Amino acid sequence: MLAYGFGQRALVGGLIIAATCSFISFFVIVRRLAFVGMGISHAAFGGVSIGIVAGVDPILAAGGFCVLVAGGIGWLSRKGRLHEDTVIGILFASAMAFGVLLVSLAHAYNLDLMSYLFGSILALSWTDVIIAAALSAAVISFLVLFFKELLFFVFDEETATASGVPVRFLYYGLLIAMAVTIVVSIKLVGIILVSALLVIPGATGLQLTRNYRGVIVVSLVAAVTSVVAGLFLSSGFDIPSGATIVLVLFAEFMLAVLFSPRRPYMARIVGKGQS
Amino acid sequence: MKRSCRVAEFFDGSAEGARTLIELDGVRVSLSGHTVLEDISFSLEEKMFLGVVGPNGAGKTTLLRVLLGLVKPDRGSVRVMGMTPVELKHELHHIGYMPQQVVFDPVFPASLFDVVMMGRTCCIGTLRFPTKADRVAVHGGIRMVGLDGLERRPIGELSGGEQKRAFLARALCRETHILLLDEPTAGLDLPAQQQFMELLVELKEHMGLSVIFVSHDVNVLARFADEMVCINRTMHLHGKPQEVLGSEKLKEAYRCEFDFLVGVGGQGPEAGKDC
């Protein structure tokens, strides 16, 4: 697979996306934003539809649309006195319905749309890879530069606010970083499966370690190995790459659940090993 | 102790023992169209322990939020270390705050050390990373509350009493002059409450702190506070604990009958309530 240009681009692009998803996945898990991720990713369908119908780059259109939806989720849940999950339920279904209506009116149900729904990493161009790298760098920079503030915010928002931490900026920043990550990842696994990349790596890390540094490292290893293994398996067996990556990630998560030190039998084994 | 210009000016500009750290004059606060606090006036001298009591919904937590600059009064003036709440926004690292309850995921992947380090966030500054001095301050805070040796223990694995002490350490490991505590002993059993209060008084003396302690427990506060304030939307009382406990206005504020066996400074008052 690596002998071909498309394979090299897929691997490089996949690794960049895996690194970004695994880092933000930590915050998605500890701040319980999994449903937000699902909402934004499904809303991306509306953005992709606008792009296809209007003749602009669907990923670019999805990017703008997802950032708007992420901001809308934040604004409505903070100002509208609605629970986050209620707002997501409203926005994600409405955005998808809008997308369905738009492509239906424009008779734009085609192969192109399907590739956004289920991913097409083997169709990545070097320009796509460079854009993914630039956006990923922006997301990772935000997470690294504001890491201590974000950690305080996700652990104890009230005291963080009382300590002068800019919680509103961090909340919207996190939602926008999620939206950007989702858009970058659409080509890898598609709109339907992208939320798995935001949730499973962090959840795997949380099964195996009890400190955030360990969670982030395990999350990174899980995401990177799933992308590499998923790409090679999909190439070897001629199966869809996005779905294979997600299933490898799921297998890693199940292994982490089985071998988690939190399980009583594992705690006994670890205890015997130490004594 | 490192001090910023405004705080240094405040402490250098007046003689020790004569400084008024907090001054409220005729403060009125409305939230969602309802008056929560009205005509609140009191002051707190340096190194004093002020107990704030009042029934549920009396506005005690709002009072703390006013002092932190998180809630803007409709009327009246607030001065903390000579600064208005707006000026105080850049000096919040001189105030330690413990909320009523920190609701966090028991499997949150952070150790005691990580949680106490959160208290240093505003001292470290945005876009900066913790230095050796910050780590020393965190170790110092943990030692002060008697949790040394548990630094690497996940926060969720500490007992309720240990968690409260961890949050106290987090409030102290900055450049704290004023400690604002919102029912910090809620949920603790009696021996743990006793231990917490004794530790607090010891630290107050050792560090020269000024403390505002909000509680439902009139008896506990009467034993440890230098002064007490009783509020129920408006100010009902302000004086020495003996004066407050003996006053008819306390019953008025709680709208119920109290029988106190006052033992301030001794074994502690025992009270029976008949509401």
Can I get a quick summary?
The complex is a heterodimer of chains A (275) and B (275). Chain A is mainly alpha-helical. In chain A, 83% of the residues lie in helices and 0% in strands.
Topology:
The complex is a heterodimer of chains A (275) and B (275).
Chain A (H helix, E strand, L loop, with lengths): L4 H26 L3 H21 L3 H22 L4 H22 L5 H8 L7 H20 L1 H9 L1 H6 L4 H23 L4 H15 L3 H26 L3 H18 L5 H11 L1
Helix pairs in contact in A: 1-6, 1-9, 1-10, 1-11, 2-3, 2-4, 2-9, 2-10, 3-4, 3-9, 5-9, 6-9, 9-10, 10-11, 10-12, 11-12
Chain B lengths: L4 H8 L7 E12 L2 E12 L3 E5 L6 H8 L7 E6 L4 H4 L6 E4 L13 H7 L2 H4 L7 H13 L15 H13 L5 E5 L7 H18 L2 E6 L2 H7 L2 E6 L1 E6 L1 H5 L2 H7 L2 E5 L8 E5 L1
Parallel strand pairs in B: 3-7, 3-8, 5-6, 6-7
Antiparallel strand pairs in B: 1-2, 1-4, 8-9, 10-11
Helix pairs in contact in B: 4-6, 4-7, 6-7
Describe the protein's architecture and organization.
The complex is a heterodimer of chains A (275) and B (275). Chain A has 275 residues and is an all-alpha fold. Chain A has 13 helices and no strands. In chain A, helix 1 packs antiparallel against helix 9 and helix 2 (34-54) packs antiparallel against helix 10 (194-208). Chain A has one domain: ABC transporter involved in vitamin B12 uptake, BtuC (Orthogonal Bundle). Chain B contains eleven helices and eleven strands. The termini of chain B are far apart. In chain B, the strands form three sheets. Chain B has a six-stranded mixed β-sheet, with helices on both faces. In chain B, strands 2-1-4 form a three-stranded antiparallel β-sheet, with helices on one face. Chain B has helices at residues 5-12, 60-67, 85-88, 112-118, 121-124, 132-144, 160-172, 190-207, 218-224, 241-245, 248-254; strands at residues 20-31, 34-45, 49-53, 75-80, 95-98, 178-182, 210-215, 227-232, 234-239, 257-261, 270-274. Chain B has one domain (5-274): 3-Layer(aba) Sandwich (Rossmann fold), CATH 3.40.50. Chain B is of the alpha/beta class and 275 residues long. In chain B, strand 8 (227-232) and strand 9 (234-239) form a beta hairpin.
